[in-house]
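Session log. Operator J.P. requested a structure for one protein chain; no other inputs attached. Running the standard single-chain path with token output.
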Amino acid sequence: QVQLVESGGGLVQAGGSLRLSCAASGRTFNSHVMGWFRQAPGKEREFVAAIRWSGIVTYAAASVKGRFTISRDNAKNTVYLQMNSLKPEDTAVYYCAADYDYTKLRGGGADYWGQGTQITVSS
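Structure written below.
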């Protein structure tokens, strides 16, 4: 069993930066793929980024690639999302996710989810 606890959300001006953290607990943590999703008001949840235990990363699209960086510290059982050059369209609730299966996680069907943390970017 894996539990995920997110932190780091808040209000930031356009062009600013935030770092989200997702602390994981569970004896199988090091075997999981972990990732971030986001859901803006009135929109479906969308994939942002994922990272394997080995450190291999995947980003969703040009909208976030080059601005966001996903990383993990296995010793601290924590995954991060560094968000730079933030734009108002990045405003959303951000969710941490974990699964054994990358394909399932990528498709939004991860077995484990955090509670979500709000990011609001003002113009």
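Operator note: DSSP finds one helix and eleven strands in the chain.
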